[in-house]
């Protein structure tokens, strides 16, 4: 074994170190080797002899010192969340940004499946993306809902990079960015006139209900099919326009939809404004109450 004095430069940062050189025959017998210098340099080398990382007592170009935990402080200061998961989705590491974003303590989640944080309607997308990123270097960005410690849901853009075969990391690095406000802005401003026109002229009834079944918005088809002014419909419960003998059944279907993921379907007879005609309709309800942008039940008929 031999000792060498080196000066390593990283931009304006210079590190003076004494490095202990170990023969290849010894190095190959170790899964991971860490060499230390008298100046605080820590170099990790994998079994193939590849450089992994440096930690050092260093100086910048102006002579000021760089803290030993400089890289850790940079990682902690990144506003986005960073996760490391294994190939099965088990959490290995979460940055301080992840704790700030979701309100969870990383220590409480390490070793648990990250799928527990995913909205039930987004799990299939996440599983497919997880399988995909394992087979390539970098995955495609996806938008999913993550559960906060408060119980609220955030829209988060995820993109992963595969480091499963890296003996130092041994997992998938995931960058997560909160895009909830951006999604709200897009819904509020993007092609608003076109959206209103499509809703007004659609042949199918489309409504947004709150969790109690009250109408928050309704398309023009409701008026064309049942004769009621949409302005009089908003703010009232949907069951108000069901035939009297079916109101209990409609109310039960709406209540069931509030606790059921996916689509809830049911048939109902609705009363026309003329008081004579009864209009049979087939309803489908999608539960988006936990969606931070929609926040209700989407009903089509």
Task: Characterize the structure shown.
- The chain has 301 residues and is α+β, with helices and mostly antiparallel strands.
- 26% of the residues lie in helices and 35% in strands.
- It has helices at 24-27, 70-77, 96-102, 106-109, 123-134, 180-189, 192-201, 221-226, 230-233, 247-258; strands at 2-10, 13-21, 32-36, 42-46, 51-55, 58-59, 65-66, 81-85, 91-94, 142-147, 153-163, 171-178, 206-209, 215-218, 263-271, 278-288, 296-300.
- The strands form five sheets. The protein has a five-stranded antiparallel β-sheet. Strands 14-13-17-16-15 form a five-stranded antiparallel β-sheet. A three-stranded antiparallel β-sheet has the order 3-4-5, with no helix packed on it.
- A hairpin with a 7-residue loop joins strand 16 (278-288) and strand 17 (296-300).
- Residues 1-11 and 13-58 have low confidence and may be disordered.
Q: Quick gist of this model?
A:
This protein has 301 residues and is α+β, with helices and mostly antiparallel strands.
């Amino acid at each position: 074994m031999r000792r060498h004095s080196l000066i390593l430069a990283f931009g304006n940062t210079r590190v003076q170190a004494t490095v202990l050189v170990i023969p290849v025959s010894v190095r190959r017998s170790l899964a991971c080797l860490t060499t230390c210098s008298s100046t605080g340099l820590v170099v990790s080398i994998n079994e193939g002899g590849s450089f992994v990382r440096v930690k050092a007592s260093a100086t910048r170009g102006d002579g000021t010192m760089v803290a030993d935990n400089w890289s850790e402080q940079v990682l902690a200061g990144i506003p986005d969340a960073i996760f490391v998961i294994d190939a099965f989705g088990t959490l290995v590491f979460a940055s301080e940004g992840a704790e700030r974003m979701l309100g969870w303590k990383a220590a409480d989640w390490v070793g648990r499946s990250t799928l527990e944080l995913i909205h039930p309607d987004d799990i299939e997308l996440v599983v497919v993306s997880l399988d995909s990123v394992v087979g390539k270097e970098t995955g495609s960005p996806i938008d999913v809902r993550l559960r906060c410690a408060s119980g609220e849901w955030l829209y988060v853009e995820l993109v992963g990079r595969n480091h499963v075969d890296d003996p130092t990391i041994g997992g998938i690095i995931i960058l997560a960015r909160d895009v909830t406000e951006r999604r709200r802005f897009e819904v509020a401003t993007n092609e608003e006139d076109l959206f209103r026109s499509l809703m007004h002229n659609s042949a199918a009834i489309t409504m947004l209900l709150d969790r109690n079944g009250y109408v928050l918005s309704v398309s023009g088809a409701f008026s064309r099919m049942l004769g009621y002014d949409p302005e009089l419909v908003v703010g009232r419960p949907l069951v108000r326009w069901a035939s009297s003998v079916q109101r209990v059944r409609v109310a039960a279907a709406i209540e069931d939809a509030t606790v059921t993921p996916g689509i809830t379907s049911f048939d109902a007879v609705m009363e026309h404004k003329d008081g004579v005609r009864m209009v049979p309709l087939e309803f489908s309800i999608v539960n988006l109450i936990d969606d931070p942008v929609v926040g209700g039940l989407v009903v089509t008929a």
